Amino acid sequence: MNTGFVATVLAYLLRGRLSFPGGHRPPVGHVVPEAFAGVGVAASSDAAVDDWIIEKLQQSGIRNVRIDFTYGDLEGPAARLLERLLDDGFRVVLHLLQPAPEAQQMPTPAAGVVWREFVAKVLDCYGSQVMMVEVCSTVNRKRWAGYSLDGFLAAWEIAWQEVRKRALTLAGPSVTDFEPPWNVGLLAALRKRGQLPDIQTDNLFCERSTEPERYDHKILGRRLAGLIKVNLIKKARLLQRIGCDFGVPRLFSPAAFWTLPRIERMLPDSEEKQADYLARYMVLCAASGSLEGAWWGPLICHREGLVDDGVAGYPVLERITHYAAVEGRLSALRERPALAALSAFARLIPGTRYEARCYSGQGLEIHAFRNSGQLIHVVWTINGRAAALGDLYAVDDLNSAQLFDRDGGLLDQSSLVVAGESPLYLCWPSAQDVALRHDAALLPKFVLHRHLPGRHPYCLSIDGWRGVVMAANADEARMLLRNLHPENLGRPGADSVLRYARNAIWSVADPRDPTRRLVVKQPVKLHWHKRLLDRFKPSKSMRSWNGSSELLRRGVMAAPPVLLWEKLGESDFRDNYYLCEHVVADATVREMALAFAQGAQDFLGVKERVAYRQLACFLLRMHARGILFRDLSGGNVLVSAGTPGELVFTLIDTGRIRVIETGLSTGQRLSDLVRVCNKLHWDGRRQFLDSYFSELGCTLRAWQWWHFLAYDAKVFLKRSVGRKAWKRWFGFRLR
Predict the structure, then answer these.
(1) Is residue 39 part of a domain?
(2) Which of 566, 581, 596 marks a domain boundary?
(3) CATH number at residue 535
């Protein structure tokens, strides 16, 4: 990067042009372009895949596509697919790029001649038929694209000359991600040369922020992210401002995506989350008012495609740089939920006028769009949160709305539905005006696992109680709320009680299937100091719901929550109930530890060392996903026999969980492990801890054993002279 480039960027920065107070809020009144949604496509060696691609695009209502074209493609499958797309009336962005080895040769004359011949020949064949011509690729990633600054400028000049000869629309320079110094430096250099594009292109990712709405913590860190408020909307508006400053007001994002492996670092439902993020990303880009289009990257591939091609493994070349081909066989192609999510957005939002972000708080997004046919509100929350539609809108407005899910499916009983991280589309006649309730808000301190298989959240306030239920449909939700109302739960009977201490825990028949049981938990006793300390915390039942939901949404086994009841208004600490599925288990880790301590060679068919290793892997996964359990005793970890040689672990009593988004420290891990290790005999403890820390790539230091010795001493004193000992002694004396 030369000194002139750096000087230009610094001058722009010193003029304050990268400062944009209020830029995180979307403007209003703009129309979302008709060609706003699109996707990247590539050909396969099998011509039948062309037919499949065309058919899926037509079924999905997606008429805008981008195809990468490089040396040799005029005589290959890419030209065959391009011609099919043009013949069928698709709007095509033709993306011309050099192979990385050729890009590395620029600006040598020989490489320039080959590049000019290629560009001219392709434009003569297809230039007049395409929507625009985009040139070069990911120029700010030399490792991928191969360009030096001088090499890119030379390649651009050749392509610019050829495009201008034919009076075509030129797009570039194809910066990837949000790195505005590159946009500033490149556009300044192109303006100086008199070679500006018609449209500025930037692959506007926000994958590094994880969620599309989040402020980007990679700029100044998590603590300062809320200070500068650089979210997706601000990024788009700032890039458009940069373009305007250099004479290119039009902005287009030709490719972005979330890769499944990145999602799976924390969340197991990667394909559902990919679809969630796609819908949320598209709505926010549309709300920004700065983009002519925000298109997805590859239609078909394993890591990030809307369709899985079944070919695992890391690609030889990043597809954001060059989406060269579909690698899988036709029989292996499988649609993902994200394809339906893009289809629903493309059907509902392009062509509408953006009216407002209706909710000004954080964590809940409500965006209003209107066209001649309907008013559309798009509603969702950040991950793990929830909002009852009945808390957001008047009943009459909900009753007159059509409600569609993220994938365009029609839903019923909108007054019961709970919005979560998967967007919902509420549609009314265009002439109708709809306002949020003055007290609209998220469900306070409530965590939702939105992607519990076969279950959807519903909420109802009735008889002074609020119930949140996970059910297959609205009819089942009403049935569960009716049959499991607090008035019908009663008190635990002698034959159903599982525990009666600080909490009453008992089982009841599942109204959906009398052969199955549900577990009910209600607090019955709380010490005075706990009443004071817990005053501003969620109820004990909600804490149990939240803990189980946090575990499940992170792929850690726990009893699935079914129903939560809380008394509305002022109530004492006992006016809440938590119901979950009854987990049938063979034993607990406490019983497993006792068996090995007594000399058993195996437990449920699993050898001791293997059992400890499997337990260590289970707890490692929990900790890696940010869960500090805080009550990890052996009795709270259920054990079942899985496939031969495998144990299945499930966590219960989840009300003390904390989520550490930045990851657990070694001290926090040790504080969790001391409880589960307390029941292990010393050799078993050593085997378990060796397995745990070897997976982390380290060893347990000698001084760290003090954590376990100190906890053992605490337990001994508690049992011998503490509260439990006094209860045992006085109980004996009284009898």
Answers:
(1) yes
(2) 581
(3) 3.30.200
CB atoms within 10 A of CB 430: 13
Provide the sign of the torsion angle of the four alpha carbons 595, 597, 599, 601, taken in this order: positive
Is residue 21, in this structure, part of any structural domain at all?
Answer: no
Classify residue 253 by its DSSP letter: B
CA angle 595, 596, 601 (to 5 degrees): 105
Reference 521, options 495, 546, 502; nearest CA is 502
Residues 365, 288, single domain; the answer is no
User: Residue 591's domain is classified under what CATH number?
Assistant: 1.10.510
- Identity of the amino acid at 209: S
Considering the domain architecture, whether residues 282 and 328 belong to the same structural domain is answered as yes
Task: Please give the distance of CA 6 from its chain centroid, rounded to a whole number.
Answer: 36
What's the Rg (C-alpha) of the chain?
A: 30
Q: Residue 634: which residues within 8 A CB-CB, separation 6 or more?
A: 588, 589, 590, 591, 592, 593, 675, 676, 678, 679
User: pLDDT by residue (tens digit) across 607-647?
Assistant: 999 999 999 999 999 999 999 999 999 999 999 999 999 99
Amino acid identity for residue 306 in this structure: L
Q: b/e map of 479-512 (b: 16 or more CB within 10 Å)?
A: ebbeebbbeebeebeeebeeeeeebbbbbbebee
Half-sphere exposure of 198 (CA within 13 A, CB side): 13
pLDDT tens per residue, range 2-29:
888 999 999 999 999 999 999 999 999 9
Does a structural domain hold residue 103? Answer: yes
**Measured between alpha carbons, how far is 216 from 208 in angstroms, rounded to an integer?**
8
Q: How far apart are CA 452 and CA 248, in angstroms?
A: 46
Residue 609 in domain? yes
Per-residue pLDDT at 687 exceeds 70: yes
Amino acid at 252: F
Instruction: Please report the DSSP string for 22-80 in residue order.
Output: TTTSPPSSPBPPTT---EEE---SSHHHHHHHHHHHHHHT--EEEEEE-TTGGGSHHHH
Q: What is the pLDDT of residues 338-360, one digit of tens each?
A: 999 999 999 999 999 999 999 98
H-helix or E-strand spanning residue 588: strand 587-588
Q: Which of 297, 315, 348 is the last residue of a domain?
A: 348
Domain interval for residue 487: 456-581
The structure's pTM equals: 0.94
Whether 155 and 298 share a structural domain: yes
Total domains in the fold of the chain? 4
CA angle 75, 202, 316 (to 5 degrees): 50
Round to the nearest angstrom and report the end-to-end CA distance of the chain.
Answer: 86
